Amino acid sequence: MTATEARPDRSPEFGGNEIGRDRRRKEDARLITGRTRWTDNITLPGMLHLAMVRSPFAHARITGVETAAAKDSVGVVAVLTGADFDESLGVCINAWPITPDQKAPTHPPVATDRISFAGEIVAVVAARSAAEARDAADLVEVEYDELPAVVDLEEAVKDEVLAHPDLGTNKSALWVFDSAQAGTGGNVDEAIAAARDGGIVLERTYRQQRLIPAFMEPRSVVVDPTGEQITVWSATQIPHILRFALAATTGVPESKIRVIAPDVGGGFGGKLQQTPEEMLAFAVARRLGKPVKFTETRSESLMSAHHGRDQIQKLTLAATKDGRVTGLKVELTANLGAYVALVGGGVPVLGAFMFNAIYKFPAYQFNCQTVLTNTTWTDAYRGAGRPEATYAIERLMDELAAEVGVDPLEVRERNWITHEEFPFTTVAGLEYDSGNYEAATARAKEMFRYDELRAEQQARRASGDPVQLGIGVSTFTEMCGLAPSRVLGSLDYGAGGWEHAEIRMLPTGKVEVVTGASAHGQGHETAFSQIVADRLGVPFEDVEILHGDTMVAAKGLDTYGSRSLVVGGEAVVRAADKVLEKARPIAAHLLEASVDDLEFKDGRFGVRGTDQGIGLTEVAAAAFAAHNLPDGVEANLDSEATYDPVNFNFPHGTHLCAVEVDTETGETRMRKYVACDDIGVIINPLIVSGQVHGGLVQGIAQALWEEAVYDDTGTLVTGSFVDYLLPTAADTISFDIDHTTSPATTNSLGTKGVGEAGTIASTPAVVNAVVDALRPYGVHDVRMPCTPERVWRAIREGGAGGDTTGAAAPHFDASTGMEGTVDRTDGSSPEGGDQ
Amino acid sequence: MIPAPFDYVAPTTLEEALTALSEHGDVAKIIAGGQSLLPVLRMRLNAPEWVIDLGRIETLRGVRDDGDALVIGAMTPHSVVAADPLVAEHAALLARATATVADEQVRHRGTFGGALAHADPAGDLGAPARALGAQLVIAGPGGTRTVEADDFFRGLFETAITEDEILTEVRIPKHPGWGAHYEKFVRVAHQWPIVAVGASVKVEGGTIAGAAVGLTNMGSTPLRARAVEAALVGQAATEEACRAAAEKAVEGAEPPSDLNGDADYRRHLVTVLTRRALLAAIADAGA
Amino acid sequence: MTRINVTVDGMKVADDVEPRMLLVHYLRERLGKTGTVVGCDTSNCGACTVHLDGQSVKSCNVLAVQADGHEVTTVEGLAQDGHLHRVQEAFRECHGLQCGFCTPGMIMASVDLLGRNPHPSEEEIREGLEGNLCRCTGYHNIVRAVQFASGHLAAAVTAGGGATEEVAQA
C-alpha cells in the first residue's frame, strides 16, 4: 500500500475534493522542460562576474595580499580585499544567541587579518566573464602566517589550541534544561543513583558525524544595483530574512532592498543562511554600480557553505529492571565550526525538547556545550537538532531492550505515551496535541511482516550464516512547524515564527495567493492551490501561488523546520476565510438577501431555502466594477492574514528497517524499509510520498555513507563528490510507506509537517538494524557512517569501528609535474585521458 | 569551474599527433576521452599550455581480430569495448570490468587507452589488462614499440609512456572459453573501487587449467596476483581451492590507507573478494 | 578561438569559442540553453547530462570544441511538435522530481537508458542511473517514472491516467 492509494481523512470543515487528492504538481511543467529560472541563469546587461580567493589554511594570519597582477589581468574590473571595505559591507549575523553570555566571534564576509577556517574568503575579483574572474583570482598572492588550528571537537573542549585566540576559550555557550528546575519532572541524578542500585543504568557515547547538506544547485547570487531598489536574486531558502539581515547590517534601508528567491534547487537547511558571498556580491555591486553574479563551484560549496550535525552525545539512561525508563541525562558537545552561524547554537538546542521523544520519562536533564573550531561553520541541516536527539534516544531504547532481553518494540511500548493520554505534557515541557503510537506501530509491523523477518533472523543466527539479518526500529516523533513566536522569544531567538498570506480575487475569476513561505522543491504551488481551491470553491487551475520575492510577498518568514504547510498553510486558510467574510455582505446586497440567510458552499453564496445564489468569482467581479456595492464596503475582496502558531506540531511514526550485513566484508545492504507516519491530514499524498522518500534517503545516508572528514591541519578531505559520498539510485531501494491519521488539533487543516520526518526517523532505524545483526558477535554499537570497514572492525576488534582516516585517494590529482601546477604525485605520464 | 586557458589541436592522423607532441610535449596534455583530464583542468590541478585531442584520429578506434590476439584501439570508448562480441568471447574479464567503469555517460566518452595511460591504481582496467597479459603498443618519433602490461605501470599515475609518445593500441591474448568475473567493492555506486579483483579461469574436466587474476587498488599500480594463479592451476575447481588460493592475494600488495579503508582492511578484503571472484569465474566457465 | 559547427536541438549553430570552454557553458552562455545545469566539478552528479550524437554524456566533461561537427540534444529539445517526451511526462506523472535541478540530467539519462533497454528491471534502472545524483526524491519516484515510461514504450498507447503504483506492479 502506498500513499497514492490512501485517501486520508479530510478536515470536516472543508467542502470540495482537492484536499487529499494526488494532484500532479503545477511546478513540474517548467522543470521537466528546462524552462527554469535558476539564479545562475540570470544574465543582465553589463553584468560582472565574481570569483573568490579562499584560504587553503584553517587558521592563519594574513600578512600580505598582492593584487597587482590580478588587477592587471584581462577583463578585470576590481580586485578587493578586506581592507577595501568599510562597515557598509555588513556582517554575518547570529540570530539566536542561546545564552546571554554566549561567546561569538565577529563574522566578517571577507577576512581582514586572520583566517578561521579553510575556505574563508580573503579577496574578491570582479571581471567581465566568470573565466576571467577565476584567472585573475589565481593571480592574487596571499601571504599567510600559519597558526595552530583546532580541528577535533574533543581537543577543542580542552582549550589548549584556540580557534579564536582573542576569545580566550573555544567554549561558546552552555545551555541547560533540567526537569526538576523547570518543574516538569524529577531530579535526574537521583533517578540515576537509584537505578544503580537494582535497576539498569546505560551509559553511552554516540558521535553525530559532520554532514554536508549538498543541495544539488550550487549557491548563486545576482545583485543589480541599477534602479531605485537594489535587487538581489539568491538561491536561498530565506529571502525575507536575508533582506532583513542585509538592511540591518549594511545600513541600506530595508525599503531599498528587494530579494528574490527564483527557482531554488534544494536547500535542506543548507540555504537557511545569510552568507558571506551574498554580502560581498551586494557590496561589490553597490561599489561598482553594475550588476554582479557569483555562482559557487561544487568544491567551494562543500568547503564553505555551512555544514550540519557534528556532536558528541554523552548519554546516561536510568531504568527499572523491566525496562521502564526513570531518567535520562544528556551531555552534548556541539561543534559550531569557526563562527556562530545564523541559527548556530540553536540547532542542538532544538534537540533539547526531543530526547524524551514519545516516552514518559519521569526525570530529564539536557546540557549542551557549543564549541568553536577551525572548521567550516555549522548550522541547520534537515531536521536540525531533532535527528540527533532521535538518534540518541532510539539507539538507547534498543540498547535497553537488549539489556532487559525483550523485543525493541516491547520496551518502547512499556514507555510510550498511550493514545488515550493526549494531550500530553512531556518532561521537556511541550504539550503533544495528538498521536497514536500504537496504531502506527501495528500498521508498520503488519507491512513489514515483522514476525517472519524475526524468524528468518533466528534461522540465520542458528546456521552461522556469514550474511546476518538485522532489524532496526525507530518510533520517532519530532517538533516542527517552527514556531510559536512567544516560545522563540523565551529562547532568545531573534525573530518570530509567524507566517503571512494574502489572497487577491482578480476580476477575471482567477485567484492570486501570496505566501511568505519560500519553496525550493516542496511543491507549495500545488498544495496551497489545493487548499485554496477547496476553501473558496474555485478550480485548482485558477489558483496562482506567488512567493519568493519580497516585493510581491512583502511579509514572510520563509521555509524551514517543516513550517510551510502547518504555519504558512494556516495563514492561507485564514486569508481565504477573510475573503469570504468580505464577500458575504456584497453577495447579500447583490442577492437582496440578509447576510444571515447566506450559506457558502462549493464556491457559491446561496440564499438558504431558495435556489438563488451568486458565485464568489462573480462577487469578485462585482467588487471590481464597484457599480453596486453596499455603503462603506471597499471595492475588492482581497484579504491577508498573519498566523502565529499556538504550539509546535508533532508528527510521529514507526519505521522498521531490515538490513543484511556481510560479516566477511562488513558491507551492509538494505533489504526492506517500512515507514508508517502519522502526519495528520494529508493535503497531497503524492507530494507527501516524495517528502518521505527523500527524507528517508538523507537519514539513511547519514547512517551508511556520508561524513565530512578533515585532516589534522583542517583541510576538508571530502571536498568533492568523489569523496563526500551521496548515494545513487543503485545504492538505495524502494520503500513501503503508509500513514495513520491523528489530525493535529492546533491548526484548522489538521496537518502536521512532513519535510523532515523521514530524515529524523530513518538514521536510528538503520543503525539499530546494523547493530541488531551483529549482537551475536558482541557488538553493541557501530559509529556512523557504518562503513564496511567499521562494521568489520567492530566484529573483529569490538568497539564501534574507529575513526575515519583523514586522507583521500587522488583520482583527479594526476599531473605531469609541470611547473606552476599542483603536483601531489610523482606521475609523469603525458597521457591525460582516462576512463 | 573553468579550466585555465590553453591552446588546442585536434590532429586527424597519428603522425600529426606525434608532431604536435614533439612540438609541445613538455607543456601539453593529451586528451583521449577526457573523463579524468577535464575534472583535473576544471579544478585547475593542472594547467597545460596545449591540449592535443586524439578524438579525430579514426585509426585509433575499434576492436579487431588479429589471430591469437584481439587488438583494441586506444581511443575505443568503454561502451564499445563492453558491448563488443569479440571482447566478450576472447577477453570476457575485460568486458566485465569495462562495464563497471564509472557510469554510462562516462563510458560513452572515456576510452580504453586513456584509462590505461592515466594509470589510476583504482581504475578498473589495469588489473584485467595485467591479468590477461596485455601488450601495449606505443608510438613515438622513432616508430612503435610494444610494452608488456607487467612493465607498463610504473607507479601512481606513472606509465612507460614517455613525453613524446602516444599509446595507440592494446593487444590482448585471446582467452576463449575462460570464465571471468570482476568483483568490485564500493560503498556507493559512483565511487572508484575500494578494492576490486578480476579473475579469469579455464576449467578442464573439473580442474583449473589456467588462471589469470588482477587486483585493483591494492598498491600504487594495478597488480597481477601470480601467487594466487600459481596456487590454483592444477587444482580441482572447488571452493576449498579458491579459499586457499585467495589467501595469497595479499602477497606483494601494498594497499593504501584512506577514508574508505585502512591498509589492513584492504588486505583482508582482497582475500574475500578474490575467493568470490574465482568462484564466480569458475561458475561462468561452466555456463 | 576555435570555430565550431554544432547542431543543437535541431538548430545548426557556428561560433568561435575558447578551447577551454566546456560544452555545458557553451550551451548555457552562448546558446541560452539554460535548461542544462552544472552541479559539480568532478562529473559525479550528472545534472549536465545531454546527448551527443544520441548518446548520453556529461556536458561539463566535454569541451565545446570536442562537439565540433556533432549533434547535441538537451532537455529543451526533447519535446516534439509541442508534445512532451514520454519520459518527461512520466517524471511529472510519478512525481519523479522535487526541486528539479537534477531533473534535466536525470531525464536525459533515462531517455538514453530506455533507448538501450526498453524494458529494464528495477535493478537495471537503478544501475543505469548511477551517474546521476538527486538529493530530493530518494530515487523512489524516479525509478517509478522510468518504469512508467517503459510501460508506455511497451504498450505504445494510452497516455496519462493510472496511479504510479499500478504501473510499478505491472
**Gyration radius of chain B, in Å:** 19 Å
Spatial arrangement of strands, main beta sheet of chain B: 4-5-10-6-7
Q: Work out the helix count of chain A.
A: 21
- Strand residues, percent of chain B: 25-35%
Order of helices and strands of chain B: EHEHEEEHHHHHHEEHEEEEEEEHHH
Gross morphology of chain A is: globular
Number of DSSP strand runs of chain B: 14
Main beta-sheet strand count, sense and barrel state of chain B: 5 strands, antiparallel
Structure classification of chain B = alpha+beta
Query: On the 0-100 scale, what is the average pLDDT of chain A?
Result: 94
What is the approximate shape of chain B? globular
List the total number of helices of chain B: 12
Straight-line N-to-C gap of chain A = 43 Å
Q: Which CATH architecture of the largest domain in chain A would you pick?
A: 2-Layer Sandwich
| Low-pLDDT residue intervals, each spanning 5 or more residues of chain B | none
Radius of gyration of chain A: 28 Å
Oligomer: heterotrimer
Biggest chain pair interface: A-B, 60 and 76 residues
InterPro entries (chain B): CO_DH_flav_C, CO_DH_flav_C_dom_sf, Diverse_Substr_Oxidored, FAD-bd_PCMH, FAD-bd_PCMH-like_sf, FAD-bd_PCMH_sub1, FAD-bd_PCMH_sub2, Mopterin_DH_FAD-bd
Keywords (chain B): FAD, Flavoprotein, Oxidoreductase
Organism (chain B): Nocardioides eburneus
Domain FAD-binding PCMH-type (chain B): 1-177
